[in-house]
Every structure is written in structure tokens, then in C-alpha cells.
Amino acid sequence: MPERDESQQPTGEPTTDPTAEATPAQQESPAHPEPAQPVDGTPRASETSPKPRFRDAPVSFVRRSHRMSDAQEKAWEENSPLYLVEVPRSFASTSVDPEVEVDPAELFGRAAPLTVEIGSGQGHAIVHAASAHPERNFLAIEVYRAGLARTVFNAHSAGLTNLRLVDANAPEVLSTFLPAGSVDEVWIFFPDPWHKKRHTKRRMVKEGFPEVLHRALSDGGRVRLASDWEDYALQMRGVLDAADGFEREFDGEWAPRFDGRVMTAFERKGLEKGREIRDLVYRRTPLAQD
Ligand SMILES: C[S@@+](CC[C@H](N)C(=O)[O-])C[C@H]1O[C@@H](n2cnc3c(N)ncnc32)[C@H](O)[C@@H]1O
């Protein structure tokens, strides 16, 4: 199980935040557990039905309790319709119907360069960025409901109109839901490290994932990544260095810290434990055979 620490609140947060975590007593097992069979971004159809029924590899998350405190529920009910994108599902509560594609210009009511954050957690980075760059559109992809609720609360408090949220498995969103070439930047900050050897197959950034990024990104688009786990940072760098259609956009071993990346509880915890933070940035290029 990856480390999680959503309990710390960065300074400047509203003290009356109704989206504060539910107490352990309020938490319970997921209302819609993922299928017993491990699943990932590539749905598998059965022999008798063309509709996908399973994913064919483990997902990079364990869905925690959907249960929110009453205050969280209230804030969620009032404000989530403004921000949450309706996602047609296929076989699981975090899946995406692969036959449905969304039009970002329609979602945001305008065409603008799109930044997508995968695993946005409580949304601190993306809410900050959406406030600082009203000329861009931002899409947060997250499966952690309390994190989405916090993001909605902060986005609403900031009066943001250029942010939308998707509650779904990110590789599926990038593979089919977003149109090819529609994303200008993808951010993956502190992805779940799955640092135990038997769990590393759950990591999101692994062989096959660059193809998913490549499809969604426009040519010249960027992917920015950061991790406090050295072996995962090395894995991410190895995978992207080897991928067709990506080139490093940094000199030396690691990229400088991206100044649009705000400090989150995950980064703070890594630093407190003496771990080094490593950033990466790659630019999408045409594929070799193009
Ligand atoms: C370690 S947290 C980091 C959150 C945030 N980026 C930060 O720095 O505070 C990783 C987040 O990624 C989310 N996540 C993991 N796999 C995901 C997936 N396949 N699709 C969507 N979200 C995912 C988890 O729910 C979790 O909230």
C-alpha cells in the first residue's frame, strides 16, 4: 500500500474547510469495490461480448473509502456539478466507456491550451495553477473522492472557471476519453510509489505508458513528473528515455524543480524522511516512423 498523508493542511488553507477528512470512524469499505480481478487501462472484452469486462493489468491505486463527512457531502453536492465531468462507465466505478470521447472546448466553454494533472490528490497544485493561469484550461484526474471534494471546495472558493475534474482511472482517460493530441501538458507529481517489490507492477509510469501519453499530448507538448522515491524516479526516467516520441527537456541528471509545482503533504513528508525530490520534464516529438 503506498504511503498517504492527506492530513496535513498547507498554510493559507481555510480553517473552516468543510472538506476536511472524514474521521476513521466515518470511513468504511468502498461502496463500489473494484472487480476482484486486477485491472488497468486496457479493458478486455470477453469472447461472447464485445464490451470490455475486465482490465488486463493491475491499476495504480487502491480506492479508499468514498464516505465523506456531512460537511464534505454538502460541499460536494452543492459545488461538484460545476466542476465534475460526467464520465460514462463500462465495467467498474473508475472505468471509462472506451466508445465515448469528450470535447474539451465544450467542457470548458472555450478552446485553450489544456494541462492535465494525473493523481491530483487534494488539488493544491492544479488549483494554484488554474488561479495563476486563467488563460489555460486545467483538468484534474483523481479517484480519491475526499481529494476531489477538497479540490472542488478550493476551486469554488477561488471562483475558478477554468478547472474541471474527472473521477476515473487516468490511463483510460488519456487513452480514449480525451481526443488524441488534445493535451498541452501532463503533470504526474508524486505518483503512488508502490515501493515493495511485489507491488512495483502497479506503478503507473512503466513500459506502455508513454504510448498513452503520446496519444493524448499534442506535438511539442510536455510531461512533467516528480517523485521522492529514487527507484521510481529512475524507472520513470528510464521508461521515458527509452520511449519513441519523447525527448528530455533538461540537462544533467534531473530537471530543475518546476516552479508551478507547489509543496504538497506528500513532498513535505518525503523531505521530512530525508528523501530527495527528483523532477523530470520531457517533450513530445513525432514518432520515429512518422
Ligand atoms: C501519492 S498521491 C499524490 C497526490 C498529489 N499529486 C500530491 O502531490 O499531493 C497519488 C494520487 O494519485 C492517485 N492515483 C493513483 N493512480 C491513479 C489513477 N490510475 N487514476 C487516477 N488517480 C490515480 C491516488 O488516488 C492519489 O491520490
From TrEMBL:
Q: In which pathway does it act?
A: tRNA modification; N(7)-methylguanine-tRNA biosynthesis
For this protein, what is the EC number? 2.1.1.33
**Keyword list, A-Z:** Methyltransferase, S-adenosyl-L-methionine, Transferase, tRNA processing
Q: What lineage does UniProt assign to this protein's organism?
A: Bacteria, Bacillati, Actinomycetota, Actinomycetes, Micrococcales
Q: Which gene holds the coding sequence for this protein? A: trmB
Family of this protein: Belongs to the class I-like SAM-binding methyltransferase superfamily. TrmB family.
Primary role = Catalyzes the formation of N(7)-methylguanine at position 46 (m7G46) in tRNA.
Q: What name appears for this protein in its UniProt entry?
A: tRNA (guanine-N(7)-)-methyltransferase
Give binding positions for substrate.
K196, D228, T264, A265, F266, E267
Q: Please name the Gene3D superfamilies in this protein's record.
A: Vaccinia Virus protein VP39 (3.40.50.150)
Renumbered residue ranges of the record's region Disordered? 1-75
Task: Note whether Transferase occurs among the keywords.
Answer: yes
* Composition skew (Low complexity), residue ranges: 10-25
InterPro entries given for it? Answer: SAM-dependent_MTases_sf, tRNA_(Gua-N-7)_MeTrfase_Trmb, tRNA_methyltr_TrmB_bact
Catalyses which reaction(s): guanosine(46) in tRNA + S-adenosyl-L-methionine = N(7)-methylguanosine(46) in tRNA + S-adenosyl-L-homocysteine
Q: Where is the signal peptide?
A: none
Identify the species of origin: Brevibacterium samyangense
Looking at the Swiss-Prot or TrEMBL record, what is one Pfam family this protein matches?
Methyltransf_4
* Binding-site positions, S-adenosyl-L-methionine: E117, E142, N169, D192
